[in-house]
What does this fold into?
Amino acid sequence: MTRLLNVSLALLLATLLTGETQGEILLFQRMISVNRSVNIFGTDQFDVDLIFGNHFFASTNDVTLFDSLVISLGDVGMTYDATPTSDPAFSTVAERLTDALNEFIKVSLIEDQEDGRTEQRGWIENLFFGRSSPPDLAGKTIERVSLHIDDFDFLPGAPGGSPPALVAGQPFDLVFTVMIYGVPEPTAAWLLLVGLTVLGLTPFCRRQQASRAPVV
It folds into this structure.
């Protein structure tokens, strides 16, 4: 009975490892706050970009995820996904996030209007992910990156000649969560599969040895 159970589990794991029924898992998430913006904005429509490059100020190899995403106050609570089929930059970004190079991740918010002002925040990868070695998600397989808009508020005007307390024309606070999804790492599953296979074959091998033992 134990052997049958072990063999069944091994077959199930083998099926998962083929990728036919393998589901994605949450590999990483981080809440990001772009607060007390230094700019005075004239609209509540913003183009949100996640930019990956080799330097914050003078990057020579930038690639942008969510390049066409525009949000406003009404997007609080919404989640937006970037996948290999929905975002042309996804494959390059996935490579950047798993190449074990300590590069930069930058959030850029640009007013969705002509000559719109820009607000930016950025981190070197090991600080963004909170890890030193590797500095990114090296060894993972990334399938989806999501942005959840947690909060988006314009701030009241400061006293003394400040802009009026309207939706637009003020600094803002924006909070959103970056979520990175992928597939489970295969190493642990393969080790479990091998272990179950050995357990399943052990009774069989013992019976074979017993049948070959000389009769005394």
About this structure: The chain has two domains: 1-22+184-216, 24-183. Helices lie at 2-17, 90-96, 125-129, 186-212.
